[in-house]
Amino acid sequence: MNNPGLPPGKLITREESLLVIIDVQEKMMPPIADGQRVLDNVVRLLRFSEILGLPVILTEQNKLGDTLPEVLAARPGLEPIHKWEFGCFGCQEFVDRVRALGLKTLILAGVEAHICVAQTALQGVADYTIHVVSDATSSRTRDNCKVALKRMRQAGVVITSTEMVIYELLQRAGTDEFRAVLPLVK
Questions:
Q1: Contact assessment for residue 81 and residue 59, using Cβ atoms and an 8 Å cutoff
Q2: Which has fewest Cβ within 10 Å: 96, 117, 133, 166?
């Protein structure tokens, strides 16, 4: 594996990280297992990303409605990339935007874990360090989500959680950023 990002066992840093929110849309979310938890954690990650100034890419699968308003409100000004492809790396606009940012660690969240999230992670793991936020992603069935997380882990993707991402990127308590983030984790 030719992975120029961080080795999977190393802590992530804000200087190298990009948050990718995949397909949290009107027609996608109602049947998602633990959908409210996923939405809450996606919103938490987006609010956190704004505090840190972390870049974000938002995607929408064509024909599945708009991104949920809660997601757009959590990080105003995001313009989604519209795609037909399941895996984001199959969409040239996504590839171009990721390359333009020049970051090597992608933090993925969204739906569905076994389709768009997994295909994106599996496509990108050779060139990037990929972290999938397990409590900010799901599928229509818990079984599909579980299988997807296991398969991604076997392929070298780091499986993490919302709070792990937040505290790894913060790195320390006692700062203004830490105080601004506290309401998100309480």
A1: yes
A2: 96
